[in-house]
Amino acid sequence: MGEETGRKHAVVQQLAADGRDPPSRYVAREEDRPIGDSSSPAPPRSGVPVVDLRRATGHEIPEALLDEVMNVSRAFFCLPIEEKQKYTNLIDGKEFKLEGYGNDRVASDDQILDWSDRLYLLVQPEGQRNLALWPETPASFREVLHEFTTQCKRVANRILRAMAQLLELDEDYFVSQFDEKAITFARFNYYPQCSRPDLVFGIKPHSDGSVMTILLPDKDVGGLQVLRDGEWVDVPTIPHTLLVNLGDGMEIMSNGTFKSPVHRVVTNAGKERLSVAMFYALDPERELGPAAGLIDEERPRLYKTVKTKDYLAVLFETFAKGKRAIDWAKV
Asked: How far, in Å, CA of 262 to CA of 125, rounded?
């Protein structure tokens, strides 16, 4: 399933290696530009949703595994461009597909591009994995990603059960929505250093379209920011922790009780940054809507019920335009 775009752009890693200022296609509008860069973050504030893996699961996921996830990620992005292009997300240089290595979809000639490269892979259902796009180098990449997928799923299920209890729903309400056809994507993000971090975004402001996102951030280099009360707040880097981010899907399913936060990534003038995200979404053919138990006279329905695949289609369209898909789903 591809999409004709006719717009091929160099991977950002190549642009960064030249050491020149970012091309104009990457420069944000003046009123939207970040202030400073992630090498000099603002003091962290309390309340940023950081979930320590061990506290979240009740048992340890080995720190060695988390380190290995980052190691294989870095090793992949350090490969020669010719090797990485074996897994490209462009067919014949112009037909975009969601999975693979490269940039996000470019929808228009005036779209402002993000200062990042990514490798995007479907990891669940396991039977639908396109292993032709799973790197063979480093040799342990596939094994490490499979194990990380398994461990993160356990974390996700535990959090989903806790959230259902908070809403006084059946403990397995959210977990039961994720049947054998539910999808999980892994996204490996690479943010090269940038000579002008005041002009570009690693990833533009957005909210996730998933029900939940579990992120393994770089343990040494910050850059993730969350919008709170109209201000951008730096998310602190804490080694061997996961960040749990609720997506638009959860905002819809909870009828607005839980919010899908707007966040962005800023770049760094002196250091590259890596992160790995797991996006959890329902079966594309399954309906996504508020739980019936959360709708009554005092809590009117705030969101439509839509097919997951329709919501995700709107998501990818609006993301390219710097808009939010959640607005489309509101009643």
From this structure: 28
Consecutive 10-residue averages of pLDDT for the chain (331 residues):
49 90 92 67 45 44 94 98 94 83 84 94 98 98 98 94 96 98 98 96 95 95 94 91 94 97 95 97 98 96 97 87 89 95
Please say whether the beta carbons of 157 and 212 come within 8 A.
Answer: no
Instruction: Say what the pTM is.
Output: 0.90
Q: Are strands 306-307 and 212-217 parallel, antiparallel or unpaired?
A: unpaired
Copy the structure tokens of residue 22: 């970012």
Q: In Å, how far are 70, 202, 241 from 152, measured between CA atoms? A: 15, 24, 12
Report the first-to-last Cα separation within the chain, whole angstroms.
30
Contacts of 162 (CB under 8 A, 6+ apart): none
Query: Which residues, 6+ apart, have CB-to-CB distance to 231 below 8 Å?
Result: none
Cα–Cα distance measured from residue 233 to residue 205, given in angstroms and rounded to the nearest whole number: 13
Tokens of 118: 């990514």
From 131, 125, 118, 109, select the one nearest 90 (Cα to Cα): 118
**Number of Cβ atoms within 10 Å of the Cβ of 6:** 10
Domains of the chain, earliest start first: 50-329 (2.60.120.330)
Tokens 């509008």 belong to 29
Structure tokens at 201: 């975004």
**Phi, psi (degrees; rounded to nearest 5) at 234:** -70, 135
